[in-house]
Every structure is written in structure tokens, then in C-alpha cells.
Amino acid sequence: MPPAIGDRRQPSRLQAAPTALLDHALTALPAGHRLPDAVWNRRHRAILMLVWLHLPALAAFGILMGHGLVQSLTEVLPIGACAVLASLSNRSRRFRAVGASLGLLASSASLIHFSGGYIEMHFHFFVVVGIVALYQYWTPFLVTIGSVVLHHGVMATLNPKTVYNHPDAWAHPWRWALIHGAFIVVASAASLSSWRINEYHALHDSLTQLPNRVLFLDRLAVVARRSARRRRRIAILYVDVDDLKLVNDRLGHEAGDRVLLTVAERLCSCARPGDTVARLGGDEFAMLLSGLADEREAVTVATEMLAKLRASIAVSGHDLVVTASIGIATGTSDLDLPGDALRQADAALYVAKRRGKGRYAVFDRFPPSTLSLEPIHPSRITPTWGEAPVAETG
User: Fold this and answer.
1) What domains, with CATH codes, occur in the chain?
2) Does pTM top 0.85 for this prediction?
3) What's the pLDDT at 374?
4) DSSP code of residue 33
């Protein structure tokens, strides 16, 4: 029976342990975030080239092992078909990655068949798992592991001597299929670990450990589509630390890094569950808010940010007061394009800077004339070294 409403009793330690263990295991696994297009395309081209190279190499190996020209060429035809499918540029990443993965798996199967089931040839499957992990995508990875078990079980049941070269495996093909599958899963741990590390560093800022621009835009695209369907508003708060260069010039970049870490902590303290705080680069941060009823909620968060950021920071024996300027862009379906949404917030940030820094500006509240790229003379900029200007929001 579920607990009554208002019952705040916590589950027992014995009940919570399996859930905590599962959560920890899932956290340790890669999330399967999309690689940037340029990176994914380079990896796919290399893997696809490897699939194509298997065609002549395996055909020659088959002939060398006495299978004849026609049989050897027929055996490698599925590999060529998979390579063709993986080469279709008008198909999705998932389709092409699975096509290339199946091509490598077919290569492993042909190698084992041509060799007469030599156990040493099964190591080709282990290599394939590591190669497929380079896609950093769960679908081809799981297809690869599942296909190994199916191949070893089905093919060994139909003709065991084409898969194994010892009597016990001939008599118990599925047992040995599961054994090989278990070895593949264990061997894939190194690939998963490398994948997880690469994924994290590719999508997070090295200093603050916050999501970087790539991950922020990916989350923005997902949240924007979901909010448009639910007719809820989202907002981007584009944050720029004012005059951080003065800190770097006077106290050094280590002090500047300390300021950035403090700013990151304070921005995160303003975030609600489900919001995303990211460092876009240099002294620029962004926060993605979702599920907003109206624009005023975003303004409330921005006001809280300005108040928290004005608190002094102890750095290298100095008490620094560092302010920030914030540009706000809100919307629903008009934020479907992440790049456009970020540009709107950046434009609002520019206006906040021109109005004196240490404040926010909302994208749809200022006239277009204020967006002119008129240069600002240095004499018009008042440094905020050690003193916080009065915030003039709105």
C-alpha cells in the first residue's frame, strides 16, 4: 500500500540500498550524448573505411583457407551490403552507425567461419566492441554485444564446427555462446570507462565542471521542443562577469579562476531542480530555465543572481566585489532553434552592458535602436574593482 499523502517516513536502509546501488551503477555508465557532428563524421569515416578494407582481406583469406573464389566472395557480400547502407548520407546517425557495426560483426563471423572455428579468431569480436564504442552511442553498442551471443548460439546450433573447434562447444553451443557473451561484456568495461571519461570531458568545462556550450545547446534543444508541446515558457539567462580582466591583470589568472569558481557556485545556488547552469567560455555563463508560467519568473531568478553575485569574494588577501550583467530571452516555440535563442540572450546582455553593467535586460523590452553595434569609449566604462555599483535592473 502506498504511503498516505503527507507521510514523510523515509524507506528503510535495507529497502533503499538496492535503489542506491542501481543509481550509482547507472551514473557510472555513459549517458550516450551526441558527439559533435564534425567529431562523429570523422569517426564514422574511419570505421566505414575499416569495414570496406575487410572485403578484399577476408575474400583473400577465404581463398587461402581453401573455400574457393565463389564461396569466399559470396561470404563477404553481407559485409559489402552493410558498408553501402552505412554510406548513405541521407540516413540518420543511428542507421549508419548500426550499418557499420553490423558490417564489422559480419567480418568477425566470416573470419571465424573461414578459419574453421579457431578460438583465436574470436578475439576479432573483442576488437569490434572497442571500435563500435567510438560512436559513443548505445544502440550500435548494444546491437554488437547482442549479435555476438546470437551468432555464437544460432550458428553453432546449425553448424557448430564453423564457430567452435572443440567438442564441448559443439555439444553445448548456447552455453558457450553465453560464456563468450559474458567475456565480451566484461571486456567492454574498458571501452565503457573510456567512453564515459571522454563524454564527460567533451561536454563539461574543465575549471568549473559545469556543462559547456555543446551540452547546453543540446539540452536547450530538448527543453525547447518539450516546452513548445506543453505550451510552457523557457528562458535563457546569459551571464557575463563584469571586468574580470582587471582581476586577471592585477592579481593573476589563478585569482581570476577563483572568482569564476565562486561565480559558478553562486549561480548554481540560484538554480531550481531541472535547471541547467553552464559555462560557455571565458567569463560567460548561462542558465536554462524551463516550465515558466511567464517572464516574471526569469526576472526573479536574474534579480536573485545579481544580489548573490554582489557579495564580496576573498581572493589573495583582497575582498573583491564582482558584479555581472545578464541578458534574458524568453519564449516557447520561438526558441526552437538553440542558436537563435542564445543570440537573443546575448543581444540583451549587450544592452545590459551598455546601460552600465551590474544589471539585467530582457530581449523583448528594449527598442531595436539599442542593438546598434556602436563602439563604447573606454572612458565611459567604470571599473567595479572593490565596489559594487547600485543595481539598476530592468
Assistant:
1) 28-203 (no CATH), 213-380 (3.30.70.270)
2) no
3) 33
4) P
